Each structure stands twice: as structure tokens, then as C-alpha cells.
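User: Thanks for the earlier help. One more: Pseudouridine synthase. Can you show the sequence and predicted structure together?

Assistant: Of course, both are below.
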Amino acid sequence: MPSSLLIFNKPFRVLSQFSEQDDKTTLANYIQAPDFYPAGRLDFDSEGLLLLTNQGSLQHIIASPDFKLPKTYWVQVEGNISEEALDQLRQGVELKDGLTKPAQAERMPEPEIWQRTPPVRFRESIPTSWLSLQIKEGKNRQVRRMTAAVGFPTLRLIRYAIGPYSLEDIKLGEWKHIDPTEELEKEVKHFEQQRKGKAPSPNRRRPSEKRQSGPQRNTIPHGKGVARRATGTKPASRAHRK
């Protein structure tokens, strides 16, 4: 049986959604898996790892920064990144929407990866360098803003890993089913238990019923139960097929 999770190596300039938008390439050009939706997003101009699931709770766990699944990026920046800039990234960078959390940042050699189409613009007078950056939050275009804030604009951005899942053995534009880890399954189970714990008791009266009194109060005939909504988890809406 197929798992509830699949992994995809998203190419450059592909929208992280299935629905069409302005003639841009979407996930529908690559993935044929009904009822699977992205767990989180990856920007149109970024490449690499995207996880998709057909399980709502799993989608929430992966996408939410509250569950602290670290995301590792390979970043090509303009200029030879300095140790001072790396230290700033490690300590946290002040952005317009607040201070980022401390990140893991290390210089790395240029990875042996696919060629980007179109390629990064090459300028002989300005060198480039690569770094590995791991964060545990999800501000909008955060990595690009972080490197720009320390003086090294991002030229190319590849998400290499989310938690225990990585791009290893996944070619560009390919996808495959994978199994959720035991730890991830435990997180999902705990999350679902918490949701059920917040569900109202079947014997708890609605506020409107408590306010009613006397002959106006609605009563339920003896022996008849009250219909309740199912508490099962459903995948996210397909309105935008994200």
C-alpha cells in the first residue's frame, strides 16, 4: 500500500501548487498522485525538497514551525561569505518582521548537483560561495532575507532536507512515496489526541441552550442522541491545490 507521504525534487520556477496560475509550471506537470497536497511550500524561484501528503494531521505537523522540523538549505551567495557573516546567521539576524532564531550556518564546497535552467548569472568580477544553512522557522523568503542582511545576497537556493528527509537519490523533477518515520508518526498521534481532547463533551450544552429557560427551552426527547461532527482528519482544501 502506498504511504501517506511522498517526496519531490522541485525544479526552479515551478509553483508549489497544482492549480494553474498565469501559465506558470505547477506540480501538476510532474506529480500524478490524487489527494496529495504540499506540506508547506517552496518558493517559485527556489529548488529542492518538497513533501506532500494526503493526511491532514501530517500536513500540519510538517508545515508548522511549532513542531520544529529543521529545514536545511544549500545556498549560493554573491561574494566569498565571511566567518563574521556566518556568526551573525548563527546568532540571529534582525529582519523587518523581527529577529530570526539562531541558525546552523557553515561554509561548504560547491555541491555536485544538477544544472539550473536558466543558469545563475555569472560575473567574472564577483565570486560566489556556498553555505549550508539550517533553520527551524518559516518566515516569508527567510533565507534570502537573512543572507542579504549580512551582506551576501542569495543567487541560488536549494532546500536539501526537512527533518530526516533529504534529496539523496532523488533526481530533479522526480518523486516517490516514502514512509513517515516512527517519530513523525508519534507526533501525529499526539497531535490528534490533543485535538480530540479539545472537542466538546457530548453532554455539554451549547451557550445558547444555557441562556434559554422556561417554556422557550428546546428539549431533546428521551432516548435520542445528538448528532456530532466526525473528528477524523481530512486533507486540506483543494481550492488552490496546495
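User: Great, one quick takeaway?

Assistant: The chain has five helices and eleven strands.
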